[in-house]
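User: I'm new to structure prediction. If I give you an amino acid sequence, what do you actually give back? Let's try with this one:
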Amino acid sequence: MNPFRRIDGRLHCERVPLEDLAREYGTPLYVYSETSLLDTYREYDEAFSEREHLVCFAAKANSGTAIMGALAEAGAGADIVSGGELYRALAAGVPASRIVYSGVGKTAREITEAIEADILMFNIESFSELETIDGIADRLGRRPRISLRVNPDVDPETHPYVATGLKTSKFGIGIEHVMEGYLRASRLENIDVAGVDLHIGSQLASIGPFVEAVSRARELIRSLGDAGFDIRYLDLGGGLGITYDDEHPPTPTRYGAALDEALGDEGATIILEPGRSIAGNAGVLLTEVLYTKKGHDRRFAIVDGGMNDLLRPSLYGSYHGIEEVVSHGREPELTDVVGPICESGDFLARDRTIPALRGGDLIAVMSAGAYGSTMSSTYNSRPLAAEVMVRGGRHVLVRERGTYEDLIRGERHADFDAEG
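Assistant: Good question. You get back a string of structure tokens that encode the predicted 3D arrangement of the chain. For your 420 residues, that looks like this:
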């Protein structure tokens, strides 16, 4: 579903007018549709219903406890990449038995916390990480489950910053070395070799790369079986894209059907790690136009939300749709929508022919539910935006707006003359 629809010229999230939310909670403001989140999760769940499977929401896409909590209540797990995300997932109510831990740089403290929580599985990114986990597990008297993250050298045909399955990427173990890794793991007394993991990238618009990666994973599992390994889990990662502009990515249903065919008679429990495709189009960033001014060949609309609130346009050159919250019927004009941050790279949209904006107008930056809030910062000492969840005609503040006091919490003067 598209939860953001125009009714009588006013943009709504489900049945709640966005202008009402901006008036009550201020801007910049993230707004999420719970119905959209859960509908997409259930589409993934249904797409793999003929197989043993677990859908683990990728917390890096949006680690808000309201988001993860709603998904956990529906049956989802979590794919995490840090100790902080482990803490958030557990606080949100995700059972440790539904948490998988990915990421190339797990620290000893993070590994310890995850072993003590008894998570489902570690996705191992290097031989040295494998040995570190074995040593910590020995000290704790535990035997955690692991899979090796295979880098299958498959071109995901996406932005190079989010391509993770090529042999030039920092992620995973090259497929030519992975059998060596499993043999090493089999000799470690404190490791339970349980699965195979792969993730080739993000914002993928076609199914072909997924199918190619699955085919290579199946070949590996057959080889591991011949070598005496009992592979119980096949983690296929995430990466399915969404529509930001004019993309036409496959739906979870089409994705599931294609992968089901590619998996054939594979009997391992399938783990999926969607993030963007669940949260991306379930959220928007509301921001108010502060000023406008004429440039050389365009107008600038200066808004109160910037790259500190939504980094993707500045970092990746990413496209996010811009919608008036209330339609005023003005003629379109070439506009750059820019933020208040003291950087030339601070923009939310460039070269857009959109209805003329005026001071006081509200706009919605679309498709901001993934990698918006989680990548935000307090750069220029700007407090973090508030966040609201909508269900039907109701709404709840799920993250309070940051305060000036928050900005300096934990800081202190360097008093070198104090005793002690």
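You can read the tokens as a compact description of the fold. Here is one thing that stands out. The domain at 4-31+280-408 is CATH 2.40.37.10 (Lyase, Ornithine Decarboxylase; Chain A, domain 1).
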